[in-house]
Automatic annotation (TrEMBL):
Top-level division of the source organism's lineage: Eukaryota
Family: Belongs to the PP2C family.
Alphabetized SUPFAM superfamilies for the sequence: PP2C-like (SSF81606)
Entry annotated with the keyword Manganese: yes
Protein name: protein-serine/threonine phosphatase
Residue stretches of biased makeup (Basic and acidic residues): 398-429, 470-484
Keyword Hydrolase: yes
Molecular function terms from GO: metal ion binding; protein serine/threonine phosphatase activity
Chain ranges of the PPM-type phosphatase domain: 50-318
First-level EC class: hydrolase
Entry-linked InterPro entries: PP2C, PP2C_BS, PPM-type-like_dom_sf, PPM-type_phosphatase-like_dom
Amino acid sequence: MGQTLSEPVRDKQTSSNGDRRLIYALSEMQGWRISILLVIRRFGANEFVTVVPYEIYKTTIQCMEDAHTAILKLENKAQKEGFSFFGVYDGHGGPNIAKYSGEHLHKRIAHDDAFVRGDFSSSIMSGFLGLDDDLKNHPEYRTDPSGCTAVVALITPENRIYVGNAGDSRAVISVRGEARPLSNDHKPHNKDESDRINKAGGFVEFGRVNGNLALSRAIGDFEFKQNTGLDAKEQIVTAHPEVDEFTIDPETEFIVLACDGIWDCLSSQDVVAFIRQELSKTASLRLACENLMERCLAPGSDLGGVGCDNMTVIIVGFLQGRTEQQWYDWIKERVEAGIGPTLSEEALRPSPLLFHPFTSEDHALDLEILSSELKGDDLRGTEDDIAAQNALEIEEDIGGKEDIGGREDTSVKKDISGKEDISGRKDISGGETAGPSLAGSGLDVTTGPSLTGSSLNAIAGPSLNVTEGKGTKIGELKGDDLRGSEGGIAAKNEGVVNREDISGGKTEGSGTKVGKAE
């Protein structure tokens, strides 16, 4: 997970289409996530990183890191009709690799020689690895720190489905309401994955590749593919996909492709049951997609990242001789007849977000906190920036104001020179909340004063010192690295920060490593 907003962005980008064989809808939603831009500044052999929040430089980087593809009529080297292609690409560390994959992977697959021979499994494998090689040799992308998962479905004129997957996005098909998996999640703790990682010279720590990446197969992430003595399939992280096949039969209802922002929140069976229930009520694939994302959206950004990720979902319905309305009626009849498993007790509960009316003031506070003191020379990249950001900070919490929960929480932040920084901003609870110091050269994303109510969770936790001195190399910033919530990650941090609570006791925290956010 990356940084999070104080309120989710619930705007959805939804589209749908169909032909005589298929109908589909897809939708994506940003949710709680803020993307960040890591700006590299160099002085001779030295380099350091400046973290730029998306809300300040949104023209430079997108906040939505997922991408998708939906093609009813896939052009191919065999010049045959009746092929359709769908794909979901879950980006991490930025949107670039995911966006490129969404624009080019289907072309790589459809124009592979194996596609002409009808060997679609081989064409999918070649397409994944070939695209990854294209990116690695592309001057614009070979140094890009981002990566993405990829789960794709190729549907043939003979009603065969070929699903290729690399990463932890997932494909599931509904047969009489039962969820049938068409992909396997590639996680570092899986034995086959950890064996490959270890043989390639890597390691698995805290369930992450080299203590960092939370998935073990991906397009991009080239820092994990540097062993020139190994084949592309044998690298620490590989783009080599697993391919599953499935034959559509009269009981086949629909297929779901989605990123882990969905699967982390609901089981495969509950996703299928939820969609069937929505279709029986709304007769709309579009609403089924949108309501599924709303159901998975977390009520707050402090739940360990579950429900806080970007979300993308594609649902493809198989008409099999029916009209669109007849297909919806068919699904409804099956649901009402009790055909297929029903929703679990957990999935039946409504999303708590239905009872949390966010206001525009929440989003305004985010922008104010992030941009209030950012000066024009913050990114100028001088050596003074490095020294300024390496300064230790002492935080002293003092009681004074109450929020709606009855907690007293007003903070005064001092730097080593003793200068106070109190922004005096009000959160939606009515309490006074001091904002993080963004003044001076370089963006300081260290532990700030407590921000109740609509605060940015990403600012909480151990100090995030984005520049660690001259010659610092760019590390990895994946998963919970920005929030400092994992003890293992905190143990690796450098640069002790002393914090003094109101009782007078001192605790020690550490600066978090910098790189790309998953």
